[in-house]
Amino acid sequence: MDVTINLTQTALETDRLILRPWQEADLNDFYAYASVPGVGEMAGWKHHESMDVSRDILQSFIAAKDHFALGYQENGKVIGSLGLNQSWANEDPDFSSFKLKDIGYVLSKDYWGRGLMAEAVKTVIDFCFDELKLDAITSGHAPANLQSKRVLEKCGFAYVKTSEYYYEQFELRTHSMRYIRFPT
Length: 184
What we know:
The protein is α+β, with helices and mostly antiparallel strands. The chain is built from 5 helices and 8 strands.
């Protein structure tokens, strides 16, 4: 079952990142990474073709209150996002009675391969179980997105199934690898 969350007063810190609510002042950093071809596409959305697209999506993040901006401590830039969304498992009879959220994330291409996303996801997992008292966390990735697969495996997620998925922005029906993580 989906739970309502509000991250507007939540900030989490790792060795290299600050996870915090999005702010309108983050627009330039957001556009800088979200406009790079290949970044959004790995997460299932088209790269941003204008600052207006980024502004609209940033406003939706702020309004939804369920996405973190990932700030890189070394330079203060926002280099990615991590959202706690409605879970695919809400529709699965095996999991629908659990309090769930789904982790979705994206990182600036300039920061790939440094272990930053696994660092962020591990911190959010702890927050979800310790503070939000969730029963489980889900996630998923496209079959070709091996970077996301590695992040999920590093963070203790277990593969559940492959499901058909419709990527609305691409008007494409494809598959999604579905994972779940329980508290340890």
